[in-house]
Amino acid sequence: MITELLPFSAQSVRKAAEIMAAGGVVGIPTETVYGLAADARNEAAVSRIFEAKGRPQDNPLIVHISDISQLAPLVREVPPLALRLADRFWAGPLTMIFPKSDLIPAATSGGLDTVAVRMPQSPEARAIIDSCGFPLAAPSANLSGSPSPTTAQHVMKDMDGRIPLIIDGGECSCGVESTVLCFPAADRVRILRPGGVTAEMLSELCSVEIDPAVTSEPAKGERVLSPGMKYRHYSPRAEVFIVNAHGKDFADWCLAHAAEGTLALSADPNAHGMFRCFGRDEQEQAHRLFALLREADDEGASTVYVEMPSKDGIGLAVYNRLLRAAAFRVIETDE
Ligand code: TXA
Ligand code: MG
Fold it and tell me: Angle 121-122-126 (CA atoms, 0-180°, nearest 5)?
């Protein structure tokens, strides 16, 4: 299969909609990361997403809509709190989990009785959904296990020959995937995956609990609420380690332990040599994280040390993705 890469335009959007109406898969931009989209109602189309990604079948997909009126047909019930959150945070990087309707096939929901729904903020994503006129199932457009793609070129690298079309909408502004949450009680949400809509932002409207799987490794065989959390994820070929040190302490530890092929991601904007600036604050770090992990592979790095990120705001999302890229290896420098 030849994979076309087209800039976002009225024509390319039309072409994407035609492909997806016929059951095909298209790489599309969103504000978080690029997605691999297909008709969420069409079992055969959705199975092509799993094939292209090499994704385990029990890992459910997020369904993307462009208007709140598209929510009701997908779900059996919408808690009042969900409507308040939608009012405040949609369109945006927030995914909410609802009991699913019969419109959503088991292939989309990974066999669960629930469906995850989000309304992206990216005007390109919204134009594509509008043009299709049906909801789009879309996981991140990387090969299963690799870092999520934040540019169309990243998608091309993973999906060349596997899908017919990628729409180039430029670099993703947010850089990490949406916040995924469910509703354990009428006035409470549980964050299953942290993202751009932060715990701090949510706690202005309701009480917020953070699923233990966000920051700790699920025990073998343990049932996790969000199946995506149990898989090895976001990993470059290089071995990644989080180093629990900051500033000069981090730099000194890396210099003392560096070998051929070592890279270090630090918050220092003047980083040079084996050090790369990972971003001075949480926002910048979220924006750059996945591209830097991919660059480490392009440079043939064998080891990547990462300065412990802040866990405030979107920093929790950065920490969550890094823990998985590092297979939960955190180095304490004073031991
Ligand atoms: O920002 C995003 O959410 C991106 C863009 C493309 O929109 N999409 C994305 O999809 O990150 P994906 O498939 O890579 O991650 C979806 C996550 C997985 O961890 C999955 O297990 C969880 O959401 N999820 C989906 N449906 C669920 C459900 N019904 N119950 C629990 N978790 C669910
Ligand atoms: Mg993903």
Answer: 85
pLDDT tens digits, residue range 187-226?
Answer: 999 999 999 999 999 999 999 999 999 999 877 777 777 7
Contact 300, 212 (CB under 8 A): no
Alpha-carbon dihedral angle through residues 79, 212, 35, 127, given to the nearest 10 degrees: 30
The maximal CA–CA distance of the chain, rounded, in angstroms, is 59
Which among 205, 125, 217, 112 has a CA at the least distance from the CA of 167? 125
Instruction: Provide, rounded to the nearest whole percent, the portion of the chain with pLDDT above 70.
Output: 97
> Cα 96 from chain centroid?
14
CB atoms within 10 A of CB 60: 24
44 Cα: distance to centroid of ligand 1 (angstroms) = 19
Q: Are 165 and 185 in contact (CB under 8 A)?
A: no
Nearest ligand, CA of residue 146? 2
d(CA 258, CA 275): 11
Q: Which two tokens stand for residue 303?
A: 């080891």
Q: What is the pLDDT of residues 148-188, one digit of tens each?
A: 999 999 999 999 999 999 999 999 999 999 999 999 999 99
Ligand 1 close to Cβ of residue 314 (< 6 A): no
Q: CB of 26 within 8 A of CB of 13?
A: no
Which ligand minimizes its atom distance to the CA of 178?
A: 1
Taking CA atoms only, the protein residue closest to ligand 1 atom 30 is 226
- Rounded Cα gap, residues 143 and 5, in angstroms: 17
CA angle, residues 174, 176, 178, in degrees to nearest 5 = 90
CB of residue 97 inside a 6 A radius of ligand 1: yes
> 211 CA distance to ligand 1 centroid (A)?
15
**Nearest residue to 193 (alpha-carbon basis) of 173, 178, 183, 204:** 178
Q: Which two tokens stand for residue 41?
A: 């109602």
Of ligand 1's atoms, which has the minimum distance to the CA of residue 227? 21
